[in-house]
Amino acid sequence: MTVLTEDNKRAVTNAICDVVSRIEGTELVEVKFYCEYGSFTVEALIWRKGGADLDLCERAHGAISFALDSLDDLFDGAYVLKVSSMGLDRPIVTDDDFRRALDTEIEFKCDDGKKRHGVLLSYDDASITISAQKGDKVFDRKYITKVQPYIRF
């Protein structure tokens, strides 16, 4: 079973980031390392405004696979490479997540237990501004317990 040191994980992550940054309008969100069904897995989550479709994921997979071939000596065994979009229901947590969610509809829960939703207009370290039916509202981030994209069915 393949095991990577923290330095090797950083090298793999940097190589993947470099590849993804060269695909126009595409961003690397996260690289995960885990074992699944007895195989060591490297999973790259990517994002593009408007969505990361199957064609984009396939293109990124090919380019990442090619780049990782030059890092084969970091792996002490076989591995599986997965490339996917970050998913519709991925929580919005970091400032980068909020930046990617700008001008999209989000739902969030505050510590009062109420669920709210609206279009994310802006954010900073202390607050988010939402456009909702009753106008723009500012919410203090320290009272928000969960944020995610709003999915309409």
Describe this structure in words.
There is one protein chain. This protein is an alpha+beta fold and 153 residues long. It has two domains: 6-85, 2-Layer Sandwich (Alpha-Beta Plaits), CATH 3.30.70.1350; 95-149, Roll (SH3 type barrels), CATH 2.30.30. The protein has helices at residues 6-21, 54-69, 95-101; strands at residues 26-36, 39-48, 80-85, 105-110, 115-123, 127-132, 135-140, 144-149. The strands form two sheets. It has a five-stranded antiparallel sheet with strand order 7-6-5-4-8. The protein has a three-stranded mixed sheet with strand order 1-2-3. A hairpin with a 3-residue loop joins strand 5 (115-123) and strand 6 (127-132). Helix 1 crosses helix 2. The model has no long low-confidence stretch (mean pLDDT 93).
Our count of helices gives 3
Shape summary? elongated
The computed structural class is alpha+beta
Please state the second-level CATH architecture of the largest domain.
2-Layer Sandwich
This entry's quaternary arrangement is single chain
- Strand proportion, as a percent range, falls in 35-45%
Number of domains: 2
What is the CATH superfamily of the largest domain? Answer: Cation efflux protein, cytoplasmic domain
Mean pLDDT: 93
- What's the CATH topology name of the largest domain? Alpha-Beta Plaits
Uncertain segments are none
Termini Cα gap: 42 Å
Radius of gyration: 18 Å
Count all strands and give the number.
8
Q: What are the secondary-structure elements, in order, as H or E?
A: HEEHEHEEEEE
Largest sheet: 5 strands, antiparallel
CATH class group of the largest domain:
Alpha Beta
The percent of residues in helical segments reads: 25-40%
- Strands side by side in the biggest sheet: 7-6-5-4-8
